Amino acid sequence: MSSREGQDIPPTGEARAPDATLSGMPEASTRQRMIETAVHLFRRQGYHATSWRTLVEAAGTPWGSAYHHFPGGKEQLGVAAIDLGSDVVVAQMRELLVETRSLPGAVRAWCRTSAERLAESDYIEGCPVATVALESTPESAAITAASRKAFERWCGLLRDQFVANGVKRKRAGELATLVLASVEGGLLLSRVLRSKEPLFVAGEHLFVLLGGELRAECPL
Amino acid sequence: MSSREGQDIPPTGEARAPDATLSGMPEASTRQRMIETAVHLFRRQGYHATSWRTLVEAAGTPWGSAYHHFPGGKEQLGVAAIDLGSDVVVAQMRELLVETRSLPGAVRAWCRTSAERLAESDYIEGCPVATVALESTPESAAITAASRKAFERWCGLLRDQFVANGVKRKRAGELATLVLASVEGGLLLSRVLRSKEPLFVAGEHLFVLLGGELRAECPL
DNA sequence: GCTTGACGAGGACGATCGTCCTATTACGTA
DNA sequence: TACGTAATAGGACGATCGTCCTCGTCAAGC
Questions:
Q1: Does A192 touch chain B if contact means CB atoms closer than 8 Å?
Q2: Cα–Cα dist B104/B107, whole Å
Q3: Model's pTM, two decimal places?
Q4: Do B192 and A137 touch (CB under 8 A)?
Q5: What is the distance in angstroms between the Cα of A48 and the nearest Cα belonging to chain B?
């Protein structure tokens, strides 16, 4: 029951629509609210520690519709939650890039805002992918694939930004990997140690590193 | 049942003895084998996905002795597993420091050997603490405390090494945090992406960074 | 106006969970 | 040899797990 292909889950719309309002729907659909609640609960206490009952209770959604919206079972919910979490992070990165208009600044701001949000949630709301990924790799092929896709997407987005800033493709890939690893590790350490410091330290270091790197590659 | 102090678990010898052979015991004790198996299973599939039955079956230890050796229940087993995992990492770091006789070299070797071991295990054997920590923070106070203690221990060991190499205490703490965050993030990414590259990239970067840092601080 | 299907409601189902129990065996000490 | 403690053995226990089922509701399409 755990050796799925990762492809046999019907893509029932997934979590692409931002927030319903498609055909006059008054509030977020049941399915959407289930996924949003899953993102919060999964990154708080993980996949296996979150039961359907806990989820529908927290989301205020009907218990009976769970397998109507997610015929693939809890695994499909996990995939949808990771996909939504991935979307949220991508949107946040894009927003920070626009706000700071500087790649090193955006990376530092990413670390800082992540640290602030983590602290505000009493060190609970870490990465929406890491916990589930570590729990389910490689036990569930579908969740493994979704986690991998999320990381690759974030890494690719960063790499493209470095390339756009004049960094050579190979080095850009390395920098993207390094940034993502530092942020993920910082999130992990900050959460467990209950301190913003690891993420702040990572942010400052990356800011200095990327500043030098971009100046060297694009010396105009 | 989850709001323990983390101190009320009787230290029944813990996981200190290397491998039995204390009074003519032919093989590792039941308790020790349970903990060792728990380290492997917990970091593979996490805490909640590993049941007592799975564990005693994998360890080949008597099912009836579980609550004899761990009257604190599964939570106590989790704490013991994290403690043992922490010991193993500390021993590995010390060994690498002796082997390479260079702090940057030891950090790079840490990344490389971690990547190799991860790949050899088919990208299963990641950090022995991270998975359980993310799952159980802050749900279980005892496991949270144990995870935090492990990270602080590793961080402290690194910081002391930097101080011994002439780095000022404040900067040494930052570097230690940065190294640990990079390694943990690298382990996470390498595992999910099924590639040694993230850990290798982190290792190379840290090697260069620390080389410059130590040369600057101790210019003899 | 009747059919159809999406969706909400609630619970049954067997499996498995962590926990805890009594009985029995192994073994150091007197 | 007798005995007390440690350890093993195996299963009972209630709770909860993920899954799946039937039924009621309601809006849209012919």
A1: yes
A2: 5
A3: 0.87
A4: yes
A5: 6
